[in-house]
Amino acid sequence: LSLKRNKSAIWKYFTTCDADVTKVVCNICQRVVSRGKDLGHLTTSTMHNHMHYKHRNVAGIRSTQSSRRSQPTPTPPALLPFAPLVFQSLQSEALDQPNHPLTQTITKIVGEMICVDLLPYSFVENKGFCKLMNVMAPHYTLPAGIHFSNKVVPQLHQRVKTKVQESLENIEGDVVHCTADIWTRKFSTSSYLSLTGHWFVQNISEGGEVTHKRTSALLNMKVIDTEYTPAEILQHLQDIVEEWQTMVPRRFTVGFFVTNNTCNMVKAMSDSGFEHIRCMAHSLHLIVTGAIEESHGVVSVINTARQVTSTVHVSNKAIAKLHEIQEQLGLAVASLIHDVPTRWNTVLLMLQRLLEQKEALMAMSTEMDLGGSFSEHQWTLMEAVVKVLEPFEEATRTVCQDDTSISSVIPCIQALRAALNELIANKDVGDLLETRELVGLLQSHLEEHFQPVFETPTNTYFKATLLDPRFKIMPMALLSKLEFERLKAAVAVEVEELLEQDSMPSAGEAGSSSGVGQESEGTSSKPTSLFWGAMQSLTAHNAASLSKTVTSSGLLETYLAESSMQSLDSDPVISYWSAKMSQYLALAQVAIKYLACPPTSVSSERLFSTGEDAVAPDHRLLPVHEPQLVFTKYNLKSVWGFLFMLGCH
């Protein structure tokens, strides 16, 4: 034993037990550590481990690590310049003090992790997590789950709520547009009602430059009974709105309410007094699924596609065989895609993947039963169906983007109309009876679902389109001269009301059309496709006829007379109206009021999605905990940008 003491520096921290030489006592914490049972094979490994995990901050411990056979301590990731310093700080004995700043920071970050990952509070008591924390911060005492549920997370929730309130207090135009959605978990008696708000925040730099930021936040998520009625839905929504109106008086006015087309939601909105905007993404879903269901030839191909996809999905042998053939043929190794009933575009993705793997599937069908097979006509029909559905998929993606507003609704409808007309003239599509029928059904359903959009020339859709510099002349092409004048007059009334309210300069003082025009930015940077080709043609045609149809007198006319063109994929508020605030403030504020409203309720629906951005509650969470956690998670990302996760408190 004396030789071992001379060979290893670790012995200055331990003393051999007099009663049992196989055990030693730590001179620092007096803990007894075993060195093994065989007197002929006693080691110092457990002593090194004890010092490594419990007393790493003791001077000299790092030098003793070089003699250990175990793996060296991993270098902390250099995510931040001060990461090594933080890693060393976690080993500090100061963490024994509950009020130490680093102790409190660790506790806060664990609370953020619970919210961001929607974990049950009992997670902090799991053995694996406790072991990890014991290694990373051995002197830190991890609080029990009840401490996080009663104190840490509620405090974080309140800080995030305050941040949302601060954003609402700086809102542009005092208008918040709302989206709502309801989600019901399978085999549950509880449903979840979410309400999100959308607005612009104005920032003015020291040099006086005005910029805007598009902002959205989850205002609340409520647990409701699955047997809800329209009246109950409306009452819950009104309660949430009134709560925020109390917190942000005189700044929180509901503009438009966007929801899906379900009967309960439509009925609730009709009784609410709010102006209801029907979710365009849901309308496109109903249009496409309705047309497909009525096209029997297309349904037959889709059913066969489902059979083949399902057969391969449920068989490990089939999956392995598919991948083997893909490698042999030099194709991309990819799995087949199964469609989801609530997402029409998954039908398109399923057909596209089958066409990509056509050669592999045909080779595979000679060796095993795929549950179905395609004739050459069906393969041809599948290709044509994909061409027909692609414009609708692009329209769906366009309206679901975070920076899209209701001003895109009419242009998208017009682009779809033009794309369907062009498809009829396409030989690959027009020569097939099934796809001619499908295109006709899509045209019929498109007109039926969006008829209300075109019924009133002074409605919200036309106003928003007129106030979007990318599409401002499109209403003129769709309306009679008299209707177009009525539309301009309706917008002018709102501008005048704002001028009178704020005592702003009159239209004549806002500046003339000279020097207002900007160089053309091009119509779009998006890739060429049938849908976007139609959209570019529409905007180019409108721009060409611009100078012939408007005059340059008055505030609105000055705006309409500008010959500049904006990129189709730009945000009109950020790219255009922010720069125009000093020139004609009232018109810009009216424009922002309309352009802040999204055309879909996707932001509310995504809270419960099963995709990449899922915020679907963990099945182990109690319903009473879920609203608070989901609110904090969503708004940490959307409003606060995950500053907490970087330690920027």
Automatic annotation (TrEMBL):
SMART domains: ZnF_BED. GO terms for cellular component: nucleus. InterPro entries: HATC_C_dom (IPR008906), RNaseH-like_sf (IPR012337), Zinc_finger_BED (IPR052865), Znf_BED (IPR003656), Znf_C2H2_sf (IPR036236). Residues 502-526 are annotated as: Disordered. It comes from the Eukaryota. Its main location: nucleus. Keywords: DNA-binding, Metal-binding, Nucleus, Zinc, Zinc-finger. It is found in: Nucleus. GO terms for molecular function: DNA binding; protein dimerization activity; zinc ion binding. Residues 506-525 have a biased composition (Low complexity). SUPFAM superfamilies: beta-beta-alpha zinc fingers, Hermes dimerisation domain, Ribonuclease H-like. Residues 5-57 form the BED-type domain. Pfam families: Dimer_Tnp_hAT, zf-BED. This is BED-type domain-containing protein. It comes from Dicentrarchus labrax (European seabass).
